[in-house]
Write a structure and sequence with these properties.
This protein is of the alpha/beta class and 332 residues long. It has eleven helices and 14 strands. It binds nicotinamide-adenine-dinucleotide.
């Protein structure tokens, strides 16, 4: 029996493939490589380049590899882009996702782990954010995840599809092998480290008039290896207890953009230039998780997610792969 990992050549997917493989699980990875990198996963892992919306392909993979569970990372992930191209986001993240779970159900697969996001909460007044906080996403990306979560609830009641929706806060950091290599990169830590590596570059900070102590937005950063381990816990839970849940994955501690820049200056020893720009629509001032439900249900708590370790791991990866995964192919 094997686990299908969609979006397995992406940032969090590749780390999860790495850690599941280390645990001795059989993995099949699927990715359309629109944003993923084939080099990010070991050549020994069975890999299909294709789309999660391709029902015939999913049916074939499930049959050929005796798939028993699916971890669904595949998604378009850029908040800004989702506002400019909402149709693409709904089609990719919702419509294709519906095809995926349709094909899985038809083949008898009942265990499903879904990559959700803190963006489902929108502007939460209460901090830290518990899973029962009101949900009203501030952008199309968040709505695609919100809609898919609702869909999973109804599929559980009607068809017995058991799911764990993992609402990640800010994924960050790297393992020795896998790191963050998005193009364009919209996430803070890789952009801060790019500015550390290149004195000509500046970190763009979107707004410094938020109602936070230094005026910049506060986020909860969680190490990608800790996130990956939560998926392992979620799969074990689905195979054992077998109940559906939505769970926050964060640390419960937030850092402002300026605090992240300062921590990166300490870790790298580099002066990092910043430029303040206008704030972006749809950026809540503060997103910090209450992760206690993930602890009680999965026994999960982040072990590698202190900010300095996150930045150190991402910096080490960057030094090893200065051009991201392209460094691997250009070295051959
Ligand atoms: N990175 C974060 O901080 C963060 C935070 C919250 C939630 N998430 C969620 O986690 C998941 C993974 O995020 P990531 O940062 O690794 O992103 P990523 O872009 O690195 O990985 C997503 C992968 O999915 C693939 N993909 C997209 N649509 C596909 C499709 N229709 N068929 C097949 N493959 C497809 C892409 O090629 C890419 O490799 C996403 O669902 C994202 O919404 C990420």
């Amino acid at each position: 029996m094997a686990i299908l990992v969609t979006g397995g050549a992406g940032y969090i997917g590749s780390v999860t493939v790495e850690r599941l493989t280390k645990k001795g699980e059989s993995i099949v990875a699927l990715d359309d490589l629109a944003h993923g990198r084939r080099e990010s996963i070991d050549g020994d892992v069975p890999f299909y380049q294709g789309s999660v919306g391709d029902r015939a392909l999913i049916a074939r993979i499930v049959k050929d590899h005796a798939i028993e569970s699916c971890v669904h990372f595949a998604s378009l992930i850029s908040v800004g882009e989702s506002e400019q191209r909402p149709a693409e986001y709904f089609e990719n993240n919702v419509q294709q996702g519906i095809s995926l779970i349709g094909a899985l159900l038809q083949a008898g697969v009942r265990n499903f782990v879904f990559s959700s996001t803190a963006a489902v909460y929108g502007d939460s007044e209460k901090m830290p954010i518990g899973e029962d906080s009101p949900q009203w996403p501030k952008n199309t990306y968040g709505w695609t995840k919100f809609m898919f979560e609702r869909l999973l609830e109804t599929y559980d009641t009607a068809y017995g599809l058991k799911s764990i929706c993992l609402r990640y806060f800010n994924a960050s950091g790297a393992t020795e092998r896998c790191g963050e290599d998005h193009d364009p990169e919209t996430h803070l830590i890789p952009n801060v480290l790019a500015a550390a590596a290149d004195p000509q570059r500046e970190v763009r900070i979107f707004g410094n008039k938020y109602p936070t102590p230094d005026g910049t937005p506060i986020r909860d950063y969680v190490h990608v290896a800790d996130l990956a381990d939560a998926h392992i816990g979620a799969l074990e839970h689905l195979r054992g207890v077998g109940t559906s849940h939505a769970l926050n994955l964060g640390t419960g501690r937030g850092y402002s953009v300026l605090e992240v820049v300062e921590a990166a200056r300490r870790v790298t020893g580099c002066p990092i230039r910043v430029r303040i720009e206008a704030s972006r629509a749809g950026d809540p001032p503060r997103l910090v998780a209450d992760p206690s439900r993930a602890k009680s249900i999965l026994g999960w708590s982040p072990a590698k997610s202190d900010l300095s370790s996150i930045i150190q791991s991402a910096w080490d990866w960057r030094k090893k792969f200065p051009h991201g995964y392209k460094s691997l192919t250009s070295a051959k």
